[in-house]
Structure formats: structure tokens, C-alpha cells
What we know:
The longest helix is centred in the middle third of the chain and has 17 residues, at about 130-145. Helix 2 links the parallel strand 2 and strand 3 (about 60-65). The protein has about 260 residues and is of the alpha/beta class. Strands 3-2-1-4-5-6 form a 6-stranded parallel sheet, sandwiched between helices. It has a 5-stranded mixed sheet with strand order 8-9-7-10-11, covered by helices on one side. The chain has 8 helices and 11 strands.
Amino acid sequence: MSASNLSIGMNGATGRMGARIIALIQEGPSVFLGAALERADHPAIGRDVGEVLGLGPLGVALRDTLEGPLDAMIDFSSPAGTMAIARACAEMRVPLVIGTTGLGPEHRAELKKLSSTIPILPSSNFSKAVNLLMRLSGEAAKALGDAADIEIVERHHRFKKDAPSGTALRLAEIVGEAIGSQRYAHGRQGNIGERTRGEIGLHALRTGDNPGEHTVVFGMMGECLELTHRALNRDGFARGAIDAARFLVGRPPRLYDMGDLLA
């Protein structure tokens, strides 16, 4: 397959992100949909995925297993779905982009092993602007140190199953590394006493159809700095995932991150 005509698969094809990625793949001149996957008990298995998503016939049937070669696979499913497709991609030597959140240490350990066979790029957020927010938050935390009280507030749609978001957790890791702290407070309730230095607060809001907002607050005596990213729709995330898939094609096996793509 030429670099200008890449076959991209989508795992979690009927989810919010999967549906939007498929729509954008159809608009792109340099990529096309090569496979659409869902869980085995999905009621639309066997139907044309374009008709299922209201895009019109695409000539790609919704399936529950990976069949045939692809240039890259994008996964927005569930932790179990991610691991299943990761093993299949490793077996078929298909580069894999992972946007699924809620992965545990055991999942990440297995992905690390599989990345010796194929290139894998997992990310909690594929928006270029969000990744810039991460970079700026790390710089601010390093400059201000533990003199600032750092709080992270995230807001997502009511259907999101995990909390805090993967992006919020990554932001907490980044500012924590900068100030040398791993003390996280997930919301507060009751008579808990004064806030301690180095504590990093995380707060998850779930409202309506919000596609995602993240604010990192650096509170100091007499002043406050806030860094915010607000998604207006899912296109920034979806386009970033497609860009990541393009990036992995032809790359050597290892774990990549969005920093590699943005470098």
C-alpha cells in the first residue's frame, strides 16, 4: 500500500469516537477504511458499517475479528477490547493506535511486551492542543514548585464510564513529576483539615454531551494561574488519532507517544 493510500482499521467502530473517526477517514484523500470492528455480541455485526452509522454504504462490514491486512489500526473500545485487538495486531504485524482509557498496570505491561513486535502508540488524548496543555502544565509546575496548590478539574459527557479522565490522570502525573509528588486527592468531603503542600487534587464533572474540558489550576497566595483546554467537538481528537496512525506506518516496533508525533 502506498503512503498516500493507507488502509486504516477501526476497533470500537460504533462508539462516539469510532463513528467520528470513520466519518473523517471517508473525507480524507490519503486514507480509507479497511476494517470496522466491534464486540462479538453487537447487534449490527455483519451489516455495512456506513449504513449502521448513517454515512451511507461504505462496503465494509462490521465484524468482531480482524481479517486481512491493514496499514494501521485505531482502537477506541474497552480495556478488554483493547487487549484483544492488540494481540491480534501483533500476530498480523499491524501498527496500533490506542485511545481507550481505563487501562490498568497489567494492561500496560502486556502492551509493552507486544510493542517489541509492532509499533504501538497509546494516548489518553490525541488532540495536539491538549498535548500542548500537558507540556505547559509541566513547565508551570516546575517553575512554581510546591508553592502552588495544584488542582485539576475535568468535565465530560454523562455517558463516560471512567473517572477521572485519562487526560486528567496524565496531567496529574506530569505536574507530580515536576514537583516531586505522587499524592493525589480525588475530590474532598468532610472535615479533612487544611490542604497539605504537594497535594494534587482531581475533580471529575459529568454533564450532558460535553466532549471534554480540562483545567489545571495553580493557586498561590494573592494570585492564581489557570491553563484550560476546551473541546468544542470530537474532531480534534479524531484527526489526531488518524495522524497517529499515519505516523506509525513504517516505524520500528516500540512504544510511542504523542510527543514523538509532535516533535
